Automatic annotation (TrEMBL):
Domain Fatty acid desaturase: 62-324
Keywords (A to Z) from UniProt: Membrane, Transmembrane, Transmembrane helix
Key word Plastid present: no
Pfam families (UniProt xref): FA_desaturase
Positions of transmembrane segments: 35-55, 61-78, 90-109, 151-175, 208-227
Protein name: Fatty acid desaturase
GO biological process: lipid metabolic process
Length: 352
């Protein structure tokens, strides 16, 4: 066996050892606690909608702005459970997916079918970081201008979602070519413009159509109410501003979630881990901009089956058990600014 083959075999053995050790150390953390899911979602959604109502009311401007900010953070946390829905095993938290769609997914025009069946591809070992990954772009090798442009474009999410559900969805029901385009290109929360989604089949197709129909009816009702003057313009604009703020916040978090340094070839398990970002304590701000376990994004790629509320304990166990030379700590970053600065520098260096 050649030296190169020896090195590859050794690397594969070390990676397999790391994965097995991580799985063994966190063996007791795989079961979600339904009470945590329900309480967290209820408090986040409740606070978010109460703050939104206050932001829409006739009070002092500074109170409306403060309430709008609280609404963005609280509803963003509630909406982030869409990520957990993709990883929850069937029946693990009974009724949670339906409740989330009724409380958050449909009202905010982000029903779970936009992510279910899409995000899972991002975790596939043969897809991560490649052209077939719906949630990956080689941002570190792209123009630095790509970063602010992507954030600005995210701000138009409310308009795009309204067009998608109030206009394109009903029209596509009677125009098959439009339906094909809508399914392939405009039915996934993805950042890779080359990604084309496969049409749903079986039970997934029925769930998709039900959720899409409900979101479409809601979007049409909002649009009709605004045109007829039944919904005050202030309410429409405030709601759109909150949704826009949530989308911008999520895009900024997305930019900080990875190093985006893949060369387009499939990465190993440790390669995926080290290309992703943890922002562990003691900082508390990540709990706001990367809620529901998203602050442990690298660890989530290593152990995707662990529910969000147990990732902190999983990180503590691995940090204590693994020696510094194992490389586990290399995915930890001090905060949002450091992750973004590194990405900007990498993009700037590639453009030079």
């Amino acid at each position: 066996m050649s030296t190169v083959q020896d090195d590859r075999a050794g690397q594969a053995a070390r990676e397999e050892s790391l994965v097995r050790l991580a799985a063994r150390l966190t063996l007791t953390l795989g079961a979600p606690r339904p009470a945590v899911f329900w309480l967290d979602l209820s408090l986040s959604a409740g606070l978010g909608y109460l703050a939104l109502a206050l932001a829409c009311s006739d009070v002092a401007v500074w109170i409306r702005l403060l309430a709008g900010g609280v609404s963005i953070l609280a509803l963003y946390r509630a909406e982030s459970f869409i990520h957990e829905l993709c990883h929850l095993k069937s029946g693990a938290v009974p009724g949670f997916a339906l409740a989330w769609n009724l409380a958050i997914g449909i009202p905010l025009l982000t029903p779970s079918f936009l992510y279910d069946g899409v995000h899972n591809l991002h975790h596939a070992r043969t897809r991560y970081g490649t052209a077939e990954d719906p949630e990956y772009l080689r941002l570190a090798a792209m123009s630095p201008w790509t970063l602010p442009v992507s954030v600005i474009m995210a701000g138009f999410a409310p308009v795009l979602l309204m067009v998608r559900f109030a206009l394109l969805a009903p029209v596509s029901a009677i125009v098959p070519p439009l339906r094909r385009i809508l399914v392939e290109r405009f039915s996934a929360l993805a950042i890779n413009p080359a990604f084309r989604r496969e049409p749903p089949r079986g039970p997934q197709r029925r769930r998709w159509l039900l959720l899409e129909s409900a979101a479409s009816a809601w979007a049409i009702a909002i649009l009709a109410g605004a045109i007829a003057g039944l919904i005050p313009l202030r309410v429409v604009l405030t709601g759109a501003a909150v949704l826009s703020g949530m989308a911008v916040l999520n895009q900024v978090r997305t930019l900080a979630a990875h190093l985006w340094e893949s060369d387009g070839e499939p990465l190993s398990v440790t390669g995926q881990y080290l290309d992703s970002v943890n922002v562990p304590p003691p900082g508390w701000l990540p709990a706001l901009w990367a809620p529901v376990g998203l602050r442990y994004h690298a660890l989530h790629h290593l152990l995707p089956g662990i529910p969000y509320h147990r990732l902190g304990e999983a990180h503590r166990r691995l940090t204590s058990a693994l020696p510094p030379g194992a490389g586990f700590e290399r995915a930890d970053h001090p905060g949002l600014a450091s992750a973004l600065i590194r990405l900007v520098r990498a993009a700037g260096g590639s453009a030079a």
